Structures are given as C-alpha cells and as structure tokens.
Amino acid sequence: MESRCGxxxxxxxxxxxxxxxxxxxxxxxxxxxxxxxVMRGMExxxxxxxxxxxxYNLGKDYGNNNDNRDFDxxxxxxxxxxxxxxxxxxxxxxxxxxxxxxxxxxxxxxxERELGxxxxxxxxxxxxxxxxxxxxxxxxxxxxxMFTKSxxxxxxxxxxxxxxxxxxARNNMRGANPGDVWQFSHVHYCNENRQPHPTQKPEGLIxxxxxxxxxxxxxxxxxxxxxxxxARVCQQLNRRCVGIEMNPEFVAxxxxxxxxxxxxxxxxxxxxxxxxxxxxxxxRQQYISNHRQWFLKNNPRLRQRFEARLALAYPNDNTDxxxxxKNED
Length: 329
Hints:
alpha/beta; Rossmann fold; 2 domains; 9-stranded mixed β-sheet; about 20% strand; globular
C-alpha cells in the first residue's frame, strides 16, 4: 500500500547478510537496502523493540543524499518508517527514537497524535564534548523519545538500575532508577572502537535500551543501523537483531565489528562503578559480590575503577573481601 505522502521507495533487490553471534542459537541479520522497503516485507507484530537513529536532516555525509531532504519530504519519510515500526512491534513492544532539536516536536506529534502510540519518556542523552559556539550555547545533548505500542508494555527496571549512593535498610540496594538524563561520553576518534561513521552512538547507551525493553532471544530492529552499534550490543546480550542500512560500506564495517573480540562496551555510565557509602560489616561482603554481578558483568572496563573506589571507600576492609576482589580478576 502506498503511503499517504506518496513517497517513492526503491524496489531493488535486497541483499541480506546473516551473522552468527557468540551463541549458536542466536543470529543477527543485516539488510543493505532502504528501511521502509525492508520493513514492509516483515511480518506484523514480529519485533519486540525498535531502536532508531534516523538521519536528522542536517546534511551529514552518510555516503548518500538521505540527510538532505526538503522539510515536507522529511516529514513524509518520518511518517512512513514510523508507521511501519508501529506495525512491526508486538503489542507489548517499545520504540526508542533519537532526534535533533529541529524535528523533535514533529516526531512527538506523529507518534502520539497520528499513530496513536503511548508516550513514556523523553530521555536526554547528555555528553560533555562537542562543537563549541561563540554566539549561543554549545549543544551538549541529544533527545530520545520512548513510546510504546500499548499501555501494557515490558520494562525491566532491575536490569538497568544504577548503584545507590548510600546503604540504607529502606533503600532497594539492587539499585536506583537511572532517570531520564543519561550521561555517556561520545565515542572519541582516538577510541579503538571508533568507526568511520559521522554519528556513531555509544554502546553503553544502546545497552540500557536493550536491557530495559527486551529479554534474551527477543527481536530488536534497528532500521538505520549505521555503524552497527545496536547489532554489536545485541550480539553480546543474546538478542536477535534485524539491522537495515543503505550504505554497503557501513554494512561491511559492521560485519568486521561483529567479528572482533569483545573487551567491554565502549562507553558506559560511570555510576555503575559507584560504591555506596555506609556499607556496614554485616552487609558489605555480600553487597560487593552482588555489585559485580549486577553492574559489572557486561562492563569489564569498569572493574579496575570499581576496585580502586572500593579500596578508597573501605581501606580497612577485611582480607576476605580484598582476596575475593583479586581472585575475580
């Protein structure tokens, strides 16, 4: 069925690549094609989670002219792919969409008023690096809208909690809700995981969405795969990922990225290494053991930072705890 915007989509043959993840019963598929064309060929109610980082229409170089549409054409393009995303989601499914300031209000209106999806959260991704401005304030955040297909959606808070600041018997020591302002560093050009892509997103940022809104073996769709971050995160978290990317060079780079050894996600929330204050002798050993399992199992890069903070916070701790820390290295 043609969209009401009358957009024309390529009917060229699709190239599909299947990548076997580190678990033999999981897979990742990558389609080199236009997002809407591929999505129209997918079964309704077949996707548990959509994570989308579409072009912001700012004229960035993605190896095509897909980020340089006129205003109305961009809104039509947005309606087209969002309509397909809603159709593909299961009734309990969730959509996360990155967007720049110019079109964020139109995106919200399309999701809520035109498509009838349910608003959940307006997430602010805060970063501390970026281009500087001399007339006006330098931009230091991106917006992420979280919408669900129905009011009965899956959300796994325990999997994305962050450590409490203080130990209190009344606190849930499994951790606190991370809130809707997320601080993750950009993937710097000096980072070994940096890909030749203009808008690469941090793995830790995508990890939070995947953990919060899906379970192992669920299907995650990224219709604008780009540098392959969503596919890499899904590979490590045992999710099935369907990625769509028009640029074959980016697809090849993603293939190489998936084949590389995993040494931890490239940017994570520093709070995961936070040691709660006032851990008494009765609870400390058990909490420390739990902390490693809850917050560090997917993030080995944080272990050294965690151990350093542990030694500073509890320098007179008993030798059993210190031995336990050393033996898990």
